[in-house]
Amino acid sequence: MLPYPQIDPVALSLGPLKIHWYGLMYLIGIGGAWFLASRRLKAFDPAWTKEKLSDLVFWVAMGVILGGRLGYVLFYDLSAYLNDPLKILRVWEGGMSFHGGLIGVMLATWWFGKRHGKGFFELMDFIAPLVPIGLGAGRIGNFINAELWGKATDLPWAMVFPTDPQQLARHPSQLYQFALEGVALFVILWIFSRKPRPAMAVSGLFAICYGIFRFIVEFVRVPDAQLGYLAFGWLTMGQVLCLPMILGGAGLMYYAYRRQAAQGVTR
Description:
This protein has about 270 residues and is mostly helical. The chain is built from 10 helices and 4 strands. It starts with 9 loop residues before the first strand and ends with a helix.
C-alpha cells in the first residue's frame, strides 16, 4: 500500500481569500491548451491572430466551466442543488461533469464558429487534441481533494484517502484517469492530428478514446453516493453517458473516411 500524500487542498491563503489547487488545475489546463494551440495556429489558419485564438480559448473555457457545473447538477445531484441553490457557486468543493463540460464546449464552439466563419467540426478537430491537458489537470485536482476515489483493493499501489469514512485501501482511480484521459489521450490525439485528417475524424477519435477510457475506469471507481449503480449492479452514470460518446465517435470516423473515399473516387 502506498501512503496518500497529505496535500492541503488550499494552495494559498491571503487573509479571507483562499486559492484552491482544484481551481489552479483549471488555469493550468486552460493555459496549457492556449500554449499548444498557438503552436499549431498557422497550420490551422495562417490568417488567425493569437488574439483571435485567445478569444476562442476564453469562450471554450466558459463552456467548460458553465457546462461542467450545470451538467453535474442535472446529471448527478439535482435534488441537493434545489435544496441549496447557492451550492452551485462553490466550485472549489468539486462537482463538475465532463459530459456537461463537453456540451458547453460544443455550444461555445458552434457560436464562435458562426461569428468567425469557421465550420463546427473544423474548430472541434482543432480543439480536441488540447482537451486532455485540462482533463489530466482536473484529475490531479480530484486527487488533491481526495475525492472520486476507487473501490477497496489489496493491490500494492492502493491508498487510504483521508476523506474515506471507512479508511479502506482503495484504487487511486483519479490517477488512473489522469494516466488515461490526460496522458494517453493527449499522446494519441496529438500524434493522430499531426497529419491532415478528414473533417470529423479527430473529434470522432477523441469521443471513442475518452468514452472507452472512462468506461473502463468506472469499473473500479466508487459511483456517486446519491446515485449508486443504475443497472445490473455495475452500470454507473459515467458509463451511461460514455456509451453514446463511443457510438457517436465511431459514427463520425466512419462517415469522415467514407466521405473522403467517395470524394477521392469522384475526382
